[in-house]
Each structure stands twice: as C-alpha cells, then as structure tokens.
Design brief:
GO cellular component, one term: oxidoreductase complex
CATH architecture of the largest domain: 3-Layer(aba) Sandwich
Family: Belongs to the prokaryotic molybdopterin-containing oxidoreductase family. NasA/NapA/NarB subfamily.
GO molecular function: 4 iron, 4 sulfur cluster binding; metal ion binding; molybdopterin cofactor binding; oxidoreductase activity
Shape: globular
Strand order of the largest sheet: 5-4-16-15-14-6-7
Cofactor: [4Fe-4S] cluster; Mo-bis(molybdopterin guanine dinucleotide)
Low-confidence stretches: none
Helix content: 25-40%
Protein name: Nitrate reductase
CATH topology of the largest domain: Rossmann fold
Largest sheet: 7 strands, mixed
Radius of gyration: 25 Å
Distance between the termini: 39 Å
Length: 734
C-alpha cells in the first residue's frame, strides 16, 4: 500500500514526437550546458534534452534546463511596447518607433539639462555577448554616459576585483577538467548541488573515480556540506581570518612551494609577516573553527600533490569579498596551485553570461578587458569605432550599487534597466523603491511585462527570450558557446540586439559608428578587437579570433584563448600554466589581507544572523522559473530555515508563519525547522519578491562595490496566522 492507496497508478510520460532537433546553450546559470530543442512537424517546441556530445554537460541537464523550452510561451510575457507619463498611471500600448523616439528624447533632455552622466544604464548577465558588446558601444560611444554597469556587480564583481588584484587581469584560470586531476578541493561558500547542479555532477563523477578530500567552508549545512569529508561551519564574513590562519600554519611549518613563490610571485615577505598575527589559537575565536581543525585542513591542502579552491556567493557577497578572493588566490599561489591540472583558484560564476559582460560589455571599461584609465586603450577603441577619443571618460564611473545612491542625491535623473529586476534583487528594498519613484524617467527592457521593477517605469520595451535570438555565451571555464535562433520573437517583442541598434540610430554618434545588422557581424568585431598585445608585450589572453559560429556549434563550445592560428577545436584549458601573469613584470601579486569586522552582527535586539542563497528549482528573481509549473511547484513560496532548538525557545512551530524584522524592514515567512542552520542563524532563499531583501543591509565591498547580502542581524516576532497567510499569497503572486 502506498500512502493509503491499494493500487499504484503507473507513471505515464506522454509521447513527444520530435521532427527536428536544434542546437543551443542553456540560458540560466554559468555552467554552460549544451541543449537540443525538439520541434514537431508543425515547428512547435515540444521538449528539451542535453547534448550528449558536449564536454560540459555530457547529456545531463538540471530541472531548469529540462523545462527551459516552456519559456517561449510562459505567462506574463511582453507583447508590445507600453508608455505612460507617470508611473502611477495606466500603461498605453504604442509603436516601437514612438517608444524608442520617446526614450531617446528623454535621454537627450536629461543629459542636456543635468550632464551626460545624469542618465544611467544598468544591464544584466542574461544577455548574449553580441548584445553586451552592442550595448557597451551604445552606452560608451553614442549616449556617452559614465553611469553604466551590470547586475553582475551583485554577484561577480568581487571575483573580478580579486582576480585583477592578484593576477593583473580578470578570467578564471581553471576549468571543470581540474576536478578529474585534483587531490584536494576546498569549496568556500559554494553549494554546487543547488547552485550549479551539472558542475556538481562533474565533481561527483570525479570523486567516484578517485576519491580526494572535499572540504566545505559554509556557515550552513548545505547539500554540498553534507557530502563533504570536512565541513567548516564558519562565522559569517570571516573567511579571510580562516585563510590567513591556514597560511600561518603552512608557512611556519615550511609547507609552502617556495620555488613557485620565488619564480612567479611578488609580495611573499609581506604576506608572511602579516599571517604571523593570525595564529590559529587567536583565529579560532573570530572565525569559529577550532585551531586543531585549522591546522589539519591547512596541512591537507598544502601536502596534496595538487589542490584547488572554488567559491561562489558566500565569498563574493561580502564587505570582504574582494579580499576573500585575493586571499584564496594567495593560498593557491603559496602552495603552487595555479595553472596546472588539478591546481587552480576557480570562481564559479553566477549568471549564464556574466563572463560575457565582464569581457565585452564595457561596463567597467572598454571592450576586451580594456581600461578607460589607459589612454592607449581609449585611442584604440575610438579609432576602431570612428569617434573622438575625448568622448570617453578618463576613468570608470558609478557601479550599479552606487547608481541607486546617486538617484537619491539627485545626481541621476533617468535610468534604463535591461533584463534585471532590482526591486527584488537589490538589498534594502524600501530604499530602492523610493529611489525608483524619484526618477524623472525610467525605461524597462525585459522579456516579462510583469517584472516587479516595471511598476515604476515610464516606457516598457518587450524583449525576446533566449533562443528567440542568436549569439554566444561565455561560461565559468571561459568556454564560448552558441545560442541558435530556434523560434521567431514572441508577438511584437524584439531581440535586445535589434533594440540597441535602433536606439543608436537616434543619436548623432550612432550615425558615425558602424552597428552591424546581425549578431554575427558584432562577433566579427569582437574577434578583431580580441587580438593584439598588452602594454607589457604579452599577447591578449581574451583572444577569440580563431572562433566562428560554425566552429562553436561543431565543438559544442571552445575555451579562450583560441587564436586565429589554432588547429583543431580546443582552446587553452588553463591560464598561467607558464607562470607568466599580465602584470608589468609578469609576476602575480601576493597581497597581505588584514581582516576588519564591519559586519552587522547579532545582538540582544536582533539575535539572529540572516543568511540567503539559492534553491535548485529557481533562478534569480523567479521572473522565469516562477512561470514554469514544474519548477515553481517545488518552491512556490518564501520560507525560512530555523533551528528547532531556537524555535522551541521562542514557541515557534514548524510550518507556521513568523515576522522576521531587521533595522531596515520586515518580511513574513513560513518556518521550516531544520538542523541545517545553527541556533543563532536563519536562512531564506533570495528568489522571492518582497521578502529577504526587505531585510538586508547591503554594505558595500570597498574594492568591488558588491553588497554584503549574507551578513545582517534579525529578530523573530509572532504574527497572526490568517493575516500572514494572506500577505504570503499576495506577495508570491505574479
């Protein structure tokens, strides 16, 4: 008998007759899975499958990828441009020409009245790389604003900053193949089974073939922590203390790779002197890991023939995020684990094309990892685009997190938001809401009309989704892969590439700069700009000059660098294998990282740490997965993990509602009692609107300007259950 039933009802999977399979790449996380979309004889999409010949996923897909074909006709999609005078008035349908003309006129009006930087642009890690390149050309070369950034500041800015500080350039040096060669792996704040399931499968497959120590550093007992050999439940925000204490042990016991340090790095003496202040006896009181465990883990890592570190948002989303990344790099360089099979410092990127925006969008500079601060870079791009180099600013402007503060002060009057949803994704929601209400003009460009930030827009531009477009992505391991145009745009929606091109035509510089009509033309420009040499004479690492759309599909993705003279279909798997780094003298930087504790911490009034993260069924702010029934049904509502002992002390019952309060606001959540969190911590998935980011503080990292989503203090209050249920239903509805 099964749950009281005497007869099993057999599971029946309806037949889906596929007449044609079309190749593309998944548009969710940064894993970069190759996908085939099945169309029936009427050219209707009926199913999705992983491509068995792709090195990344080898036929596997997670639940989001399996159901991705349902996005094309999911509810809430934008069907036509909309316009209104005030955000509190109803929208009226309009033509594309009128919507684009109005937007261009408003941009010009704001810039003429308040200055060029008074109009800001915020993009996403969800666009295709040719779209990033085109938007960067539009923002930097045509509109000319220096208030331009992407929502990757919320997830990857600290990884970028840390890589630049340590190695002289952005770009993850390792690859997934390193799992198959390493002899020890430390995961800092990374929960692969839920964040990147297929990368986890690659790791699990490697562990089954040849077991090696898996060490997980995370304050919560995540799914990955449950599978680990050693779990270090660290005090939130203190990773730098733990790493410094590990290096204290490694250096004082002579376990460092001194030959590698002497040949390929600079700054060792300063790091050696600093870590003397981080004896495990003292460090344990700060980071919460006992001194014997610190010593044991340090020895395991240093003595392994090869060792690798990975991290995700547990490191990046911190006031010490950039320092944490630089210190992970320190650990790997001190042990000689950079640029060799199984030895790497590998940032696990968040969004599907966060690497593409880092490479080509010009958010933090100019295309191809060029810098606004570098006169030669400015001159090179200005000459290629055909404009005066004096049109470019001499240094980078505001990041996304600073743009919203500049709206508060009146420095920014207009904003164009592309494929991101700050009303749910940014910390301190109440502050963001007030900022958006203050804008003179807001344009939202998104696949979905019902995205929460669209409540405050004056113009809405409906964009095409995923494989209604054509272009490329770059995944976590620098692998460029192709997205084929499988379906025409939905109703009167348009590809982002088309929208940017049409907007450029409405400005003077847009008449001077060439904007290719097709994405492949933009890709050819990117290939040309990827060639050449750096100021120190080294060849550019971000070289994609040997790639083509045909080669990318044939190879199922190619890693850069892949230069025009390459033979075969494989790029370079690892960076820095020769020990030469893109710094002035070719040596990597070992950086002394001091810890300063500026986190908001639990106190008598707010006794709980608030932690946040992903669940496997959802992606970001649920604008897509919230519309897919078989994703949403597993996590349809916001909930809070709470320790049973803490709940008992407060009289909180399992599956009851509570009000969670911080110094910024409150949120109503359903309680799930679990031992996965300690007594002084609660955990909430970040995907839900009007929930966890009503509470977060979001102090900024001084180097990357990335917010600290995971370190703030809260308290738990009772709430009337019927009213809580009503609020919960209201907030989770699209």
């Amino acid at each position: 008998m099964l749950f009281g039933r005497k007869k099993r009802k057999p599971i029946a999977i309806p037949a889906k007759k596929v007449a044609e399979w079309k190749y593309t790449t998944c548009n969710y996380c940064s894993t970069g899975c190759s996908i085939e979309i099945g169309l029936d004889e009427q050219q209707k999409i009926v199913t999705t499958r992983g491509h068995a010949g792709a090195d990344v996923n080898r036929g596997k897909l997670c639940i989001k990828g399996i159901l991705e074909h349902e996005l094309f006709d999911s509810p809430g999609r934008g069907t036509e441009p909309l316009i209104r005078d005030k955000h509190f008035n109803p929208f009226k349908p309009t033509s594309w020409d009128h919507a684009l003309d109005t937007t261009a006129q408003q941009i010009k009006h704001i810039q003429q009245k308040y200055g060029r930087d008074a109009f800001a642009i915020v993009s996403s890690g969800q666009l295709l790389t040719e779209e990033f390149y085109t938007l960067g050309k539009l923002a930097r070369g045509v509109i000319g604003t220096n208030s331009y950034d992407g929502n990757t500041t919320l997830c990857m800015a600290s990884a970028v900053s840390g890589y630049k500080r340590s190695f002289g350039a952005d770009g993850p040096p390792g690859c997934y193949d390193d799992f198959e060669h390493t002899h020890c792996l430390i995961a800092f704040g990374s929960n692969l089974p839920e964040q990147h399931p297929i990368i986890y499968w690659r790791l699990k497959e490697a562990l089954e073939k040849r077991h090696f120590p898996l060490i997980v550093v995370d304050p919560r007992v995540t799914m990955l922590a449950q599978f680990a050999d050693i779990h270090l439940p660290i005090t939130p925000g203190t990773d730098c203390v733990l790493i410094n204490a590990m290096m204290h042990v490694i250096i004082n016991e002579g376990l460092q790779d001194q030959n590698y340090i002497d040949a390929h790095t600079q700054g060792f003496d300063e790091v050696k002197a600093l870590v003397q202040d981080y004896n495990p006896k003292q460090a344990q009181d700060v980071c919460g890991i006992d001194e014997d465990t610190i010593r044991s883990v340090a020895r395991i890592y240093a003595k392994a023939p090869t060792a690798m570190s990975i991290w995700t948002m547990g490191i990046n989303q911190s006031t010490h995020g950039s320092d944490g990344v630089a210190n992970i790099n320190n650990l790997n360089m001190v042990t000689g684990n950079i640029g060799k099979p199984g030895g790497t410092s590998l940032s696990i990127t968040g969004q599907c094309n966060a690497m593409g925006t880092r490479e080509w969008s010009s958010c933090s500079g100019l295309p191809g990892y060029r810098y606004l601060e570098n006169e030669a870079d400015r001159n090179e791009i200005a000459e290629f685009w055909g404009i005066d180099p004096e049109f470019f600013p001499k240094k980078r402007g505001l990041s996304q997190t600073d743009i919203f503060a500049a709206i508060e002060t009146g420095e920014i009057k207009g904003l164009w938001i592309v494929a991101t949803n700050p009303m749910t994704s940014m910390p301190n929601t109440a502050r963001i809401r007030k900022a958006l209400e203050k804008l003179d003009f807001l344009v939202i460009q998104d696949v979905y009309q019902d995205v929460e930030t669209n409540q405050y827009s004056h113009v809405y531009l409906p964009a095409s989704v995923w494989a209604e477009k054509e272009g490329v992505h770059t995944n976590t391991e620098r692998r460029v892969n192709l997205i084929n145009n499988v379906m025409p745009p939905f109703k009167n929606a348009k590809p982002d590439f088309w929208i940017f091109n049409q907007m450029a035509k409405r400005f003077d510089n847009g008449q001077m700069i060439h904007f290719p009509e097709a994405p492949e033309g933009a890709f050819e420009e990117m290939k040309y700009l990827s060639k050449g040499r750096l100021a120190n004479g080294q060849p550019r690492q971000l070289d994609i000059s040997g790639m083509s759309y045909a080669k990318l599909e044939a190879a199922k993705g190619i890693q850069w660098p892949y230069r025009e003279y390459e033979v075969g279909l494989k790029g370079i798997a690892r960076l820095y294998s020769d020990g030469i780094f893109p710094t002035p003298n070719g040596k990597a930087n070992l950086l002394p990282i001091s810890f300063y504790n500026n986190n908001e911490q639990p106190c008598q009034a707010y006794p709980f740490w608030l932690n946040s993260g992903r669940v496997v069924e959802h992606f970001h702010t649920r604008t897509r997965t919230g519309k897919i029934g078989n994703c949403n049904k597993f996590s349809p509502t916001a909930y809070m993990e709470m320790n049973p002992d803490a709940a008992q002390a407060l009289g909180v019952e399992h599956q009851s509602y509570v009000r969670l309060t911080s110094r910024r606001g409150d949120a109503v959540v359903l309680v799930q009692l679990t031992q996965r969190v300690p007594r002084n911590m609660v955990f909430i998935p970040f995907h839900f609107h009007d929930c966890v980011n009503r509470l977060t503080l979001g102090l900024l990292d001084p180097h990357s300007r990335q917010p600290a989503f995971k370190q703030c203090a809260t308290r738990i209050e009772p709430i009337e259950q019927a009213e809580a249920a009503r609020i919960n239903a209201e907030r989770r509805a699209f």
